[in-house]
Amino acid sequence: MSAVVDFPVKPEARPYLDAARGLAGEPDWLARQRRGALARFAELGFPSRRGEAWRYLDLRPLEQAPLLPAGVGAADRSGGAAARLAEFGVAGAAARLVFVNGCLSPGLSGGAGLPTGLSLVSIREAVNSRPQSVETALGALPGDRDHPFAALNAGFFTDGFVLEVAPGVVLEQPIEIMHVAAGEVAASLHTRSLVSLGADSRVQLIETFAGEGRYWRNDVVAVRLGAGAALDRVTLVEEAGDAIHLATLDAALGPAARLTCFALLLGGGTVRHEAAVRSAGEGAYCGLYGAFVASRRQQMNIVTNVDHSAERGETREIFKGVAAGRAHGAFQGRITVRPGAQKVDAHMLSRNLLLGARAAIDTKPELEIFADDVKCSHGAAVGDLDEAALFYLLARGIPHQEARHMLIEAFIREAVEIVEPRAVREHLLARLARRLAVLED
Question: Is the whole model's pTM more than 0.90, yes or no?
């Protein structure tokens, strides 16, 4: 795939188009899809803070100093991936895929085995082994038309995973996906994954993002849930201090399907966690939960968009944020109820804690309701530590700094307590405690 130059190009997109080369041995249909996606990115360019969707994130440093794709040959010469695996791995996983610098590492991947009817492979393998299903899925993401970085991802992704579960298959142990950045050269890493669950199947997925150095991670995951299917997804983000992490979830729910997502954002210089969910089946459930902890000059942005077009849908969103130093956090959530989507029950809550006069958190929950028989609400709060609670602890002889730490931990820990099973919850709480220990240093 040669560089695309026969259409208008936004200036900031030019370096990426010049880097477009494609991957050896790819089928013609994928090369065509890549060209179309890059053409769309060239048309859209980088989003501006003047637009409502990106107003809380400053991407000018990325425009001024492009991070071009690492490509398939970016190796880990430091051994950092193996060390990260030991640090972040979750015990008891049924299977584990490890992606190093955007590409599957077979030597670090493995597991105890998967039941019949459940397939987990890299997307590069799936392109060759099941091209028809993958071609349809890769070309059917609505976000690629309107989201510049989803379009860029479609043009540049080097790998990712495909998880396909047959109807009725239930996996009790979680599947673990680990993304590690361990390259020596500053670059961008583009991964694209597909999750498809058949009717009445159930799976838990744990994804971890970690790394070292300066890099830009651009990750897209498409989720398709059949009737009665249930996916429980847990995401842990502990990127390097100079890293940019942009992640997009594109989900479609069938009748009575259940999607539960929890995201814990602890590391990265600039982090945006985005979820777009189409609740298109009657009685579908969407639960979006999470928390972020930001300090120094970190930027952390959580964006959700849940669109109900069928009756009796249910949505629950609860997010918590903590910002210290000169950090800036933001939550932007929207729930839309389409005409005819009666009996929808949807609630959204954003609670945030500021530690210091220079920290800032913006919160913008929205409801768009076009049906008259619904129960919907939203709430948001941004404030300081509870002075009465702090005084209570000080009056009982607890040192000031320790008392502050206890209150901060209790505030953010509440969001993590909903995660099941216990082993995964304890793993997240351990990572959270490690982060909070240096929050106000």
Answer: yes
